[in-house]
Task: inverse folding
């Protein structure tokens, strides 16, 4: 199946309704699309490919419009295999095509696929003429890999922005922003940004600034996942801008684990104490919330509180995974609260506190260690911690 974006420019991507977790990590309740585009001019170009198992469906889409043997350029904005897995398949057919990418992508291509088609390494802002249409390549380092670029179709003013401005959610034949319920996309694109790009938020800001500075008109934004924005391209740019801004939000998110409910009890007592102080609070039980939703609600929370029972003298293992995530995703500095629960020697907070401090976070006092249900003194500590949090959020 294909769809015309504008004269001579086609959507030839595919929907994935099978993969349960993107990157084997992030849930996909509505699937995901691998967007790919075909431009037919004197020269024929493809921008982005699809994930390996979808190669045949994708090649069928191309065949609806042109003979894939006639493809002149295979443009790869990004080497991650969700966009390039089909390269070896198309390379067998489009034997005269030239692969177009950045210098760093070239090395990755060799290591990932070792396809021996001709290649053209493009510099930042270099252009290629396809006949009537011209492509300009805009390097977008670390958005979200180091080799990434975007491609701008100058005459039609379409920005093929790669993963930037992308979203989870398959398209189901509705390719454009004006055909889709954007409330779903608002949630799925924020979850996408948070799970995939949080480590590189400043590169989103740089990318947006760079495109603005180029002074180019943008009529359509065509990312590599999710809808194409033709009705209001700024809708997604504004959201990506806001969600990646370094400013933290004036709220607190509590993330806790629990086996038998004791830590849960402390979490909700703290929530109540915070709400009594008019603090906006979100709470996640780490086992029942998807990590991507937890990242959405913590990446910009003014204060994060972590609660963990002790498990074999260590924090509850999924809490350790959350701390791995906030380290890997380079969460901005902010105050952190900690509370734990134990049965005998404890250990969760003893391990978590220095780890967070080494990461540079200010750990608020009191750090609360409860044995089972909180006693009066510990109830007082909960109220005390709530006051500390409220004062930090001011
Ligand atoms: C598998 C398992 C391992 C545990 N390991 C420890 C431990 O090493 N040290 C400790 O003080 N308590 C340990 N505990 C006890 C719990 O930390 C304690 O019961 C706590 O109150 C549980 O909180 P929860 O109800 O929120 O799960 C362990 C409990 C379980 C089930
Ligand atoms: Fe990617
Ligand atoms: Fe991607």
Result:
């Amino acid at each position: 199946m294909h769809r015309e974006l504008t004269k001579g420019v086609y959507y030839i991507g595919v929907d994935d309704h099978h993969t349960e977790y993107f990157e084997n990590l992030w849930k996909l309740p509505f699937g995901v699309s691998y967007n790919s585009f075909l431009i037919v001019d004197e020269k024929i170009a493809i921008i982005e490919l699809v994930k390996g198992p979808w190669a045949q469906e994708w090649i069928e889409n191309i065949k609806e419009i042109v003979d894939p043997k006639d493809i002149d350029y295979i443009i790869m904005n990004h080497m991650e295999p969700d966009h390039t897995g089909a390269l070896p398949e198309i390379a067998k057919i489009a034997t005269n095509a030239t692969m177009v990418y950045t210098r760093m992508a070239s090395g990755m291509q060799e290591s990932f696929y070792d396809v021996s088609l001709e290649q053209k390494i493009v510099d930042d802002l270099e252009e290629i003429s396809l006949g009537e249409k011209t492509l300009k390549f805009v390097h977008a380092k670390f958005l979200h890999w180091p080799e990434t670029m975007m491609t701008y179709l100058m005459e039609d003013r379409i920005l093929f922005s790669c993963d930037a401005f992308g979203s989870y959610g398959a398209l189901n034949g509705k390719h454009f922003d004006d055909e889709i319920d954007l409330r779903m996309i608002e949630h799925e694109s924020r979850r996408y940004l948070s799970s995939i790009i949080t480590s590189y938020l400043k590169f989103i800001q740089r990318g947006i600034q760079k495109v603005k500075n180029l002074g180019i008109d943008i009529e359509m934004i065509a990312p590599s996942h999710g809808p194409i924005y033709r009705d209001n391209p700024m809708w997604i740019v504004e959201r990506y801008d806001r969600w990646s801004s370094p400013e933290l939000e004036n709220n607190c998110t509590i993330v806790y684990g629990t086996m038998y409910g004791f830590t849960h009890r402390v979490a909700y007592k703290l929530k109540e104490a915070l709400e009594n102080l008019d603090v906006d609070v979100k709470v996640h039980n780490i086992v029942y919330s998807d990590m991507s939703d937890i990242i959405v609600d913590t990446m910009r929370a003014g204060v994060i509180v972590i609660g963990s029972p002790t498990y074999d003298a260590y924090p509850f293992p999924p809490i350790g995974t959350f701390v791995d995530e906030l380290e890997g995703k380079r969460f901005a500095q902010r105050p952190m609260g900690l509370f734990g629960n134990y049965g005998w020697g404890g250990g969760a907070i003893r391990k978590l506190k220095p780890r967070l401090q080494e990461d540079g976070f200010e750990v608020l006092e009191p750090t609360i260690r409860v044995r089972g249900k909180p006693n009066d003194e510990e109830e007082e500590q909960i109220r005390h911690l709530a006051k500390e949090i409220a004062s930090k959020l001011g």
